[in-house]
Specification:
The structure is a homodimer of 237-residue chains.
Chain A: H1 15-20, H2 29-43, H3 50-56, H4 71-83, H5 96-112, H6 118-123, H7 130-145, H8 150-173, H9 179-192, H10 199-203, H11 205-209, H12 214-229
Helix pairs in contact in A: 2-3, 2-4, 4-7, 5-7, 5-8, 7-8, 8-12
Chain B binds a DNA duplex (30 and 30 nucleotides) through residues 3-4, 16, 19-20, 23, 26-27, 49-51, 54, 59-63, 65-67, 70-71.
Chain lengths: 237, 237
DNA sequence: TCTTCGTGACGAACAGTGTTCTCCCATGGA
DNA sequence: TCCATGGGAGAACACTGTTCGTCACGAAGA
């Protein structure tokens, strides 16, 4: 991992080679996006700045703006790169509910496997990048295969996506190794609040702080998919 | 060297009065929070900086740190102030579903009536401020009155809160007077993408971009509350 | 009444941020 | 061989949240 620094003091006639060689590849949109994802994986979203990405590529922040229009666009591209990993399957009317759940579980997992990248997903605009639209397309096909009408499927795909990104974000902020310690602190705090004003919260402290992981995600997923299934006239429950 | 600029040229014996009079009220936590909310109402979340709050109160940013620990804490306090406006009612087992919906509708409205304040709500930690906890307490009571067991009620209050803040945020970012123009641009974009790769999206463009408002919120609300109601053993559907 | 003392106020500064301007120079086409 | 084009990059701009050190003022003590 030679950086650009050791160029100082080199003989003049080496300079051309030295300038051509260390730039292993010319800067490109793809390389920038990959570098950004590497930084998120290694240091988290808070560490992701344009200067940091430039540094990762042995250059400065200004050079990036020839290939990406803004940081916001860069984040969209990073998200799209991650979305590309999500496995898609053709819609099957016989098992559409399980297909939808699987797709959302995979989406959640893809986001969570890159630290707190989900933060970018919640703040992002309505997704218009290719792979994000592939996912939406697939999910729409599944919902339609399940018999949902156009408007319900449209609302549904939005609702399910919102749920998945929001819970992934929530999980990633309190994620990591200190989950135990986090729920512990919350539980301690609940022990200090006045029980006469908050009888429910104090008495349910354990239930409220239990399991911030998969189980809670599955809980909401079941409710949402079952709720959508009940919208189809022929048979729900 | 004289430090403060605007004091220049004033007679010396006026100085004490001049410094005492313009400070109409002493800085306080409450005044700071109110000023911050005024700024959000007038200029939106992006304009809310510590310097801007200081300016609103005729002082600098540094002075605020004697009363609030950080900007994050300030945002929590602003949210709590807004949550204080939300009307609460005692839980009634006969009509708990409508009560829950009403409460969430009011919460959504409270957030949306302050520009894009919902942005603070999505990023915020699990709410621990008094009025936020009043809402959680009330909602838990309603869910329990509906017959939900402890764990389901705990998951439920979290799920419903997440849904409300997330959709309020989504609505506020594309909100304002340019909603028409926004959906129009999305619809135009959908017309340019390849129909053979995205048959669902292109054919459902109208349904996908229709009504970013109350109707979509009600759609998800119905599904969630009905889904929770079905969790109680005695009678759901 | 005079003096000390603690505390809120606050200007300046620090270490960042995203983005733009402007110049430099290597490369490809003529 | 010459020149134009366009990417690379340093510096600068206008910000951000936060901390430091100083300063003035009201209250308590002598």
């Amino acid at each position: 991992m030679t950086s650009a620094a050791p160029r100082s003091g080199w003989p003049e006639h080496w300079r051309d080679k030295a300038k051509a060689a260390p730039r292993r590849q010319p800067l490109s949109r793809e390389r920038i996006v990959e570098a950004a994802l590497r930084i998120v994986d290694a240091e988290g979203m808070d560490a992701l700045s344009m200067r940091r990405v430039g540094q990762e590529l042995g250059t400065g922040a200004a050079s990036l703006y020839a290939h990406v229009g803004s940081k916001e666009e860069l984040l969209e591209l990073v998200l799209d790169l991650v979305y590309a990993d999500i496995e898609l399957e053709p819609a099957d009317p016989e098992r559409w509910q399980e297909q939808v759940k699987r797709l959302l579980r995979n989406s959640r997992e893809a986001l969570l496997s890159h630290r707190d990248l989900a933060k970018a997903a919640v703040v992002a605009n309505v997704p218009v990048t290719p792979h994000a639209m592939d996912i939406a397309e697939t999910m729409l096909a599944m919902l339609r295969a399940g018999g949902l009408d156009e408007q319900t499927a449209a609302y549904g795909v939005d609702l399910l996506g919102l749920y998945t990104t929001a819970t992934a974000f929530e999980a990633s902020t309190r994620g990591g190794a200190d989950t135990q310690e986090f729920t512990g602190r919350i539980r301690d705090y609940f022990a200090t609040i006045p029980a006469e004003r908050y009888p429910m919260i104090t008495s349910m402290a354990v239930a409220l702080t239990r399991n911030v992981g998969e189980e809670r995600f599955e809980f909401g997923l079941d409710i949402l998919v079952a709720g959508l299934a009940r919208q189809v006239p022929d048979g729900g429950a």
